[in-house]
Amino acid sequence: MQMPLYQQIMNTIVEKIEKGDYLPGEKLPSERELAELYDVNRMTVKKAMDMLVNTGYLYRCVGKGTFVKEDKSKLLLGVGRRESTQDYGMSAKIKNRGMKAASSVIFSGILQGYPSMCTRLRIAESEPVFVLHRVRYGDGEPLGIEYTYIPGKYFPDVEEQDFNHVSLYDYMNGRGHLPVEFRQTLMIIRCPKREAKYLKIEEGETAVFCFEYTGRDSSGQVVEYTRSYLKSENVAFKFFQYSADRSFPACPSQSAEVFFNA
């Protein structure tokens, strides 16, 4: 059964908001203009807009129009493929939401002879792996803990960096190996003892989101493997399935998006 037209329009507008085509505070085209754009009647567009207002994506100002609602309590973490380098990395996204971003390095250094991680990074077992374990903060509160591993051969000066203050992705971008494409796995688990300590939650009694993702640079090289534990009270996971109707802008049949609530 085909998805109703109003829902197709909703999904298309939501996608544009999440991608940044429609920015927070930006005025959307009028219902008449959208009806012409999508070749549907105006009541179909009105129903879609009403639903988006009710679900918090949009708001109306009488006599002025409909606008994208700004929600600074949510931080969108990129998944899939990055289309630009302006909003990459957790630190950048925290700052872009008006929050104070901070990191605390638990451990960093080069490891040799790490076969399982070398396999994940598609490098030889004899090659060095740089390890970076950090707690990530927003406005002073721990949001998550990240265990990151990158191939040392691409980043010969990585040990000289202070990742308490330097953005890892800024550094990787400067060396020509910014991750731009990701493969992710999501698990929901009871918080282990070590992570509970850093996240200030009860061990084993609180569920956390555990993400594992592998990042490739623009040439297709694997340049990052990260496992992160995120407090469930701070995360909402959204999954969208889009219509294949060709009358709407091209989009993937499925898309997943992750939000941080600060």
Describe this structure in words.
- The protein has 262 residues and is an alpha+beta fold.
- 24% of the residues lie in helices and 34% in strands.
- It is built from 7 helices and 11 strands.
- The strands form 3 sheets. Strands 4-5-6-9-8-7 form a 6-stranded antiparallel sheet. Strands 3-11-10 form a 3-stranded antiparallel sheet.
- Helix 1 (5-19) crosses helix 3 (42-54) and helix 2 (31-38) crosses helix 3.
- The radius of gyration is 21 Å and the shape is elongated.
- The two termini are 38 Å apart.
- Residues 74-87, 240-244 and 246-257 have low confidence and may be disordered.
Order of helices and strands: HHHEEEHEHEEHEHEEEE
Taken from the alpha-carbon principal axes, the silhouette is elongated
Helix share, percent = 10-25%
Q: What is the strand tally?
A: 11
Largest sheet: 6 strands, antiparallel
Tell me the Rg in angstroms.
21 Å
Unreliable stretches covering 5 or more consecutive residues? 74-87, 240-244, 246-257
